[in-house]
Amino acid sequence: MMRQYELVERVTRYDPDADEDLLNRAYVYAMRAHGNQTRASGEAYFNHPLEVAAILTEMKLDSATIAAALLHDTVEDTEATQAEIEEKFGPEIASLVDGLTKIAKLDLVTREAAQAENLRKLLLAMSRDVRVLLVKLADRLHNMRTLEHVKPEKRLRIAQETMDIYAPLAGRMGMQAVRDELEDIAFKVLNPEACKIVIDRLAKLHAESGGILKSIEQELTQKLVENGIKAEVHGREKRPYSIFRKMERKLLSLGQLSDIFGFRVIVGTVDQCYRALGIIHRTYRAVPGRFKDYISTPKQNDYRSIHTTVIGPHHMRVEMQIRTRLMHEIAERGVAAHAIYKDAPDAKEALDGFRAPAAESNAYRWLRHLVEMLQEGESPREFLEHTKLELFHDQVFCFTPKGKLIALPRGATPIDFAYAVHTSVGDSCVGAKVNGSHAPLVTELRNGDEVEIIRSEAQTPPAAWEGLAVTGKARAAIRRATRAAARKQFAGLGHEIVQKMLAKIGKTYVPKEMAAAIARVGLRNVDDALAAIGRGELSAIDMLKAMGHTIDDTKLRELRRRPPAKKTDPDLSVPVRGVARTTALRISPETGAVPGERIVGILMPGEGITIYPIFARALEQFDNQPERWVDLAWDTGAEEQRFPARLTVTILNEVGSLAQMTQSISDLGGNIDALQMVAREGARDFYDVDITIEVHDLRHLNEIMTSLRGKPAVSDVSRKTG
Q1: So what's the pLDDT on residue 417?
Q2: Fewest CB within a 10 Å sphere: which of 20, 333, 336, 562?
Q3: How many CB atoms lie within 10 A of CB 362?
Q4: How do residues 619-647 score in pLDDT, each as one tens digit?
Q5: Helix (H, G, I), strand (E, B) or coil at 322
Q6: CA 203 to chain centre
């Protein structure tokens, strides 16, 4: 166990003006508070806050943060109180400790709810003072380092929580070294077999290539010196979990990975970064498409560096990362490094605008934005879901037509882009142009894409978009809009019910009467009451009584008597908005239509409305009849049903081809409604299969189409356009 004087010496070594008295008092108080408590490993509990403080001294943090680390478990696990901490150590340290104390006394039924509330408290505390995050991550890091002493089921839960939340959070705040260690330990617990295979392979590659890496270090250092650049060149290998994640993302085997090794070239100034890049490209052959300039366009976590991949000796592909010393410190320690280096003499050139304190860094602004957005969550499940979505680290950078840069998670679509620009843009989005060409709203965006959003004020976002969106902001906004649309529908229905009830007793609807009676039914306003009536949560008769209307028993029985049920027309069950509920609807059998894609209706005299997807060729015949077009949108709850989509699948004319196709559809939960095989003219080796399948939404359909394209017997898959 580290002694009291050793901790103080650690801090004064990098901060001669440290408050030694504060550190000594916090050490003694925490040691006495934890007393004889022990951890699962059997060691004294006080060793844990002491190790957390030691981790923070490696980040060279201030005395208050080190003291808070020593005290961070006292309120939660000992007899100490928040008031006592504030009295003895002041409001600053008390606030840090409070932000790190879990909410233990809420009546929360599920572990998920407790996790969400504790995370919500932590994020709010972090948004006020980033040092709360630094202590929390150091706390989690030491807990992960001693995870082998915890029971297996608890070990798995802690590792999964670390992988889902704390490691990505460290990454988004720029603390890459902490993120790497957290991920590698969690990876070893969650997938020990894969971890061992990767580590063994790395050890073998290192033994085979160690000499080559050393020679590249020496050769590159000499080349840079010859050109007047003093630099540090360090060879390194990717971390085990980083390698595994890349294998999963790109569907590669370990043997197919060619850039496991990399080098960091650390120079003095930004100008030298670009000069070093030229020297490296003259020395080694550059790999096309593998250049990224994060100095010109920093990541959202303030990461800045130049990345390039080259072909080194023995045809080995290696990644080069070129950065200044201060960029390197920020890349490794993120917001913790800002506080240390913001006043360095060369900070202006090396950071190029990053002299602002941590509270104004890109990473910290992102945190404040996350907190603002997540406070709108309706439930613990939504809160956790949105938090995990917002913690995605891999990004793509796209542009608006006016050149504004929009950073999005990898896999984002124009829907996410629209909501990133502004919520009103997302809500009114009806289409998109990517690089000047019309593109489906499910298109996956790539680095450098220019995206133009096509808008219509008549549009409301379909509920199915929630399953297509990647960002938490987009999902939250779609969910809110969906709820608002449903509430509006229910309020309209409730209004109609109240009017009819009043008409039956010879009265007319007077809004002021209902407004005056709202308090008697325990609701906030008229709209809430009407929506509750429409949903069936509030009886219209009770509302009439609250409004002061007297209803005798005979009339009451008449009002409660329900009309005989009518036979339901199956076409009336299509859940869309934009038409009256009594309108006859049918989906075009030539194309089908599924939630998530843009739809329009065509009025068919005497038959009702036929629903078409926007790409249907059949719509061309109605171009000159705009009066027959009806703007439709999928309604809430559409994802609970199945809808038809008509495909053309080209398969090989061989035994088992049809079975491959039908099995693939079945495995993904699709239902085959109709199927017809058509021989292709002049191509006896292939058949076209005209097939109608029933799916839940566009994402479900795309999964099935992607799976079909991957089958050896399938040559092509496309939607029928009519």
Answers
A1: 93
A2: 562
A3: 18
A4: 888 877 777 787 788 875 545 688 999 99
A5: strand
A6: 34
Q: Name residue, tokens 């509270």.
A: 359
CB 243 within 8 Å of CB 183: no
pLDDT at 292 exceeding the cut of 60: yes
CA angle 324, 325, 328 (to 5 degrees): 85
**Looking at the DSSP assignment, which residues form a beta bridge with residue 396?**
408
85, 202, 64: which is closest to 135 by C-alpha?
Answer: 64
- The amino acid present at 172, given as its one-letter code, is R
- Phi and psi for 89 in degrees, rounded to 5? -125, -5
> Of 43, 76, 360, 378, which is the active-site residue?
76
* Number of helical H runs and strand E runs in the chain: 30, 20
629 φ/ψ angles, rounded to the nearest 5 degrees: -85, 135
Q: What is the pLDDT of residue 569?
A: 38
Distance between CA atoms of residues 530 and 601, nearest Å: 29
**Which pLDDT band holds residue 340 (cuts at 50, 70, 90)?**
very low
Q: Residue 385 catalytic?
A: no
CA distance 329 to 59: 10
- Judged against a pLDDT cut of 70, whether residue 115 lies above it is answered with no
Question: pLDDT tens across 345-354, in order?
Answer: 444 443 443 3
Supply the pLDDT for residue 23.
92
Pairing of strands 451-455, 429-434: antiparallel
Residue carrying the six token digits 């844990």: 48
Burial tier of 511 (Cβ tally within 10 Å: 0-12, 13-18, 19+): exposed
Please state the separation of Cα 338 from the chain's center in Å: 26
Q: Is-above-0.70 flag for pTM?
A: no
Which residue in 585, 636, 695 sits closest to 462, CA to CA? 636
Q: What is the mean pLDDT of residues 95-104?
A: 73
Measured between alpha carbons, how far apart are the two ends of the chain, in Å?
76
DSSP type of residue 696 = S
| E strands in 512-634 | 576-577, 585-587, 599-604, 608-613, 629-631, 633-634
Known catalytic residue at 77: yes
Arithmetic mean of pLDDT, 666-690: 80
pLDDT the model gives residue 560: 52
What is the pLDDT confidence band of residue 576, given thresholds at 50, 70 and 90?
confident
Mean pLDDT of all residues belonging to the chain: 80
What span, in angstroms and rounded, lies between the C-alpha atoms of 533 and 493?
8
- The alpha carbons of the chain give a radius of gyration, in whole angstroms, of 31
- Tokens at 300, concatenated: 């959202």
Q: Within 10 Å of residue 413's Cβ, how many Cβ atoms?
A: 24
3-state secondary structure 35-71: CCCECCCCCECCHHHHHHHHHHHHCCCCHHHHHHHHH
Cβ atoms of 149 and 173 closer than 8 Å = no
In angstroms, what CA-CA distances link 98 with 71, 120, 667? Answer: 10, 13, 50
DSSP letter string, 277-338: HHHHHHHSEEEEEEEEETTTS--TT----EEEEEE-GGG-EEEEEEEEHHHHHHHHHTHHHH
Catalytic residue among 15, 62, 77, 237: 77
3-state secondary structure (DSSP) of residue 715: strand
What are the CB-based long-range contacts (under 8 Å, 24+) for 565-571? Answer: 571/608
Retrieve residue 580's tokens: 């009256």
Looking at residue 551, the DSSP 8-state letter turns out to be -
Q: Both tokens of residue 374?
A: 């997540």
Please count the CA atoms within 13 angstroms of the CA of 203 that sit on its side-chain side.
Answer: 6
